[in-house]
Amino acid sequence: MDFSTMNIWCWLIPLLVGLLCAYFGYLIGKGNTKTIDNSQDLKLLQDKNVKLKADLDACKGKLSAEAAMAAAGGAVAAASLTSEPAKEKEIPFDAAAAKAAMGKVIKKDDLKVVEGIGPKISGMFNDAGIITWKALSETAVSDCQKILNGGGDRYKVHDPASWPMQARMCYEGKWKELAKWQDEHDHGKL
After folding, report:
1. pLDDT score for 4
2. How far apart are the C-alpha atoms of 145 and 143, rounded to whole Å?
3. Residue 90, CB half-sphere, CA atoms under 13 Å: how many?
């Protein structure tokens, strides 16, 4: 046996095995490819998009028609103004329940009950026309932030995200839920 040619076989055999494995791997991989057809899903989504755009345009048209009627003072607007508007039933304030749940005397529509609102912020909201729990509960968080921004840099640390929700609990007389929520959250932050 010639040892000088043995070195060639150490390189040649692994090279041939590698080439054969690569070729068979290519054939196996090529045979398993499937073409996925998403054209029906795409068509369905395109149809849905067209329908949603049509609904949006219809809503915009209806809104502009209502605005035109209101601006023109049409007969429909006049008739709706003469009819008695449906009054929302006011929820009575229970001071005893509020005191029992909160552990202190609560005055009706006192915005300072909302955690995060102190006397100065309460005054800012009162100046902006928000003087009741109901009004605060119906105020958007962005509007609350605008009122705070109007007070200057010292009010930027306050987060009004939970204030309308807390005010809604006050207005609806959910004192136990409010007390529990305020105990669980630090300084009224969500």
Report:
1. 63
2. 5
3. 9
d(CA 160, CA 144): 6
Burial of 51-84, coded b for 16+ CB within 10 Å and e otherwise, reads eeeeeeeeeeeeeeeeeeeeeeeeeeeeeeeeee
Contact 166, 181 (CB under 8 A): yes
Which ranges of the chain would DSSP assign to H, the alpha helix?
3-31, 39-72, 75-82, 95-102, 119-127, 133-137, 141-149, 163-171, 175-184
The span from the CA of 189 to the CA of 138, in Å, is 19
The pLDDT confidence band at residue 73, using thresholds 50, 70 and 90, is: low
Q: Which two tokens stand for residue 80?
A: 């709706």
76-92 pLDDT per residue, tens:
444 444 445 556 677 88
| Averaged pLDDT score across all residues of the chain | 83
DSSP conformation class of 93: P
**Residues 153, 80: contact at Cβ < 8 Å?**
no
Place of tokens 């609806």: 172
Q: Which burial class, exposed, middle or buried, applies to 107 when counting CB atoms under 10 A from its CB (0-12, 13-18, 19+)?
A: exposed
The pTM score is: 0.52
